[in-house]
Amino acid sequence: MKKKEIIKLPENTKYEQLVNTSYNLFMRHGIKRISVEEICQEAGISKMTFYKYFKNKIELAKFVLNKIFNDQMKVYRNIMKEKTSFEKKIEKVILMKHESTEFISKEFFNDLTKNPIEEIAGLMKQFHEDSIKEIMNDLKKAQKKGELRKNIKPDFIFYFLNGIQLMAEDENLSKLYSTPNELIMELTNVFFYGILSNKNVT
Amino acid sequence: MKKKEIIKLPENTKYEQLVNTSYNLFMRHGIKRISVEEICQEAGISKMTFYKYFKNKIELAKFVLNKIFNDQMKVYRNIMKEKTSFEKKIEKVILMKHESTEFISKEFFNDLTKNPIEEIAGLMKQFHEDSIKEIMNDLKKAQKKGELRKNIKPDFIFYFLNGIQLMAEDENLSKLYSTPNELIMELTNVFFYGILSNKNVT
DNA sequence: ATTTTAATGTACGATATTTGTATATTTTAT
DNA sequence: ATAAAATATACAAATATCGTACATTAAAAT
Q1: Burial category of A161 from C-beta neighbours within 10 Å (exposed 0-12, middle 13-18, buried 19 and up)
Q2: pTM across the whole model
Q3: What fold characterizes domain B62-195?
Q4: Under 8 Å between Cβ of A157 and A134
Q5: Nearest alpha-carbon partner for A71 in A94, A97, A106, A107
Q6: Which nucleotides of strand D come closer than 7 angstroms to any CB of the protein?
Q7: What residue segments make up the domains of chain A, in order of their start?
Q8: Exposed, middle or buried, B11 (CB in 10 Å: 0-12/13-18/19+)?
Q9: Buried/exposed B94-109: b ≥16 CB within 10 Å, e otherwise
Q10: In this structure, what DSSP letter does residue B94 have?
Q11: Whole-angstrom Cα distance, residue B30 to residue A36?
């Protein structure tokens, strides 16, 4: 007789405790530095309970990252729904991006880019592509509405966005900034404001 | 033929690099979480060089803590030398204490109190006693000058200060505050302002 | 009250990481 | 060219972490 496969998932206090504390710990110290036992201690649960909900630390990290990503995209979509100018929206998005990465420590960022755990790296790539797709869509719409220069090819924008991602991962470039946030902020800034339709350009 | 025992210590770039980066890493993550290799990588030195200057991580940590303590005491003494009212000085000291612990992460604090490495704990105790002694002295002086209530026994103040230290280490008390800083701030506040001479009291 | 279920604590072998040192190589200054 | 200082690499020994098994306790359901 095997054990039941169905586990009542959410709304569980222990479960939420686990997710929340690991979220905080990961944010402050990255994934590598945090041990399962530390998470359990901090969350006030036993190790066995941990392994009931998550196969291992990586799975938990993936879940947490998912949460972060989805939360961010939710905010992004809400901003895009607003009825202000495209320029204002972009401004807000940049600000949002900046603020949301503000608690993300250098070590967390490094865990995700420099010495990434294989699985996590894949997840991050997925997230990146998804967000690119969605943003691209919005950009195309904006272009049609004349809020962006018409003479920029969507493909160019796509590769430029990828370039930004790569640049953000370049440690030589990173060295020029005291925090990853600064670099990312700068890059997105250049990206968005650099391609904003000049009022005199067709 | 043994190697020379004398090593030219300071002003060395590598040496300073080592001390500074470890200071930063310790502050952000505590001692336990940081490995020697990580320090070396971050500082851009080899492990061999590390072990030339410091016997091990603990010794380095002790050195760094020493530096922090001495720097703090220097600031304290400078404040005490000023020619304002005792009340104002205390205010400044509290502020200084608060600010100096502001970069000290929760994890660093925990390393020093909750699960302390034996040697480090001893050092911290020493620091604590030294500072108590010095502060006590200043308090006695202030008492003589009538800036503090005369009817408080120095011994009481001594034990009260110890009590503060203990309270700061009590994790049940800590839970009431989001950061250790807040708790410490509160405690010192109560201590200093609670015993400040009421203008109507002899 | 008794049974089921869920959570915990302890212990443990298997891995993985970290430590501190030895050795050979490279760099720097003289 | 030579000596002194720093580095890279490799490594055994010590530690830490992982994931699981088992016995125990706590809570919930019957």
Answers
A1: buried
A2: 0.69
A3: Tetracycline Repressor; domain 2 (1.10.357)
A4: no
A5: A97
A6: 5-10, 16-22
A7: 13-57, 64-195
A8: exposed
A9: beebeeebeebbebbb
A10: H
A11: 18
Q: CA dist B49 to B4, B34, B44, Å?
A: 15, 17, 10
Residues with CB under 7 A from strand C: A 4, 8, 12, 14, 44-49, 52; B 35-37, 47-48, 51, 56-57
Among A113, A72, A111, A114, CA closest to A94: A72
The first and second tokens of residue A87, run together, are 């320029």
Contact (CB, 8 A) for B39 and B18: yes
Residue of chain B with shortest Cα separation from A26: B29
In terms of Cα–Cα distance, which of B179, B39, B44, B154 is closest to B101? B179
Closest residue in A to B32 (Cα–Cα): A33
A37 touches strand D (CB under 7 A): yes
Rounded to the nearest angstrom, the minimum Cα separation between B33 and chain A is: 7
Q: Give the separation between CA B62 and CA B119, rounded to whole angstroms.
A: 8
CA B22 to chain centre: 16
A13-57 and A64-195 share one fold: no
CATH no. for A13-57:
1.10.10.60
Question: Is B33 within 8 Å of A28 when comparing Cβ atoms?
Answer: no
Please return the burial class of B75, using the count of CB atoms within 10 Å of its CB with bins 0-12, 13-18 and 19+: middle
Q: Which CATH number fits domain A64-195: 4.10.280.10, 1.10.357.10, 3.40.1650.10, 1.10.490.10?
A: 1.10.357.10
Q: Residue A159: phi, psi to the nearest 5?
A: -70, -30
Interchain contact A32–B (C-beta under 8 A): no
pLDDT tens, position by position, for chain B (202 residues)? 333 334 444 455 788 889 989 998 888 888 889 999 999 998 999 999 999 999 999 999 999 888 888 888 899 899 999 998 776 777 677 667 656 665 566 566 666 666 667 778 788 788 878 887 898 888 888 888 887 777 766 667 666 666 665 666 666 666 777 766 677 667 766 666 654 434 333 3
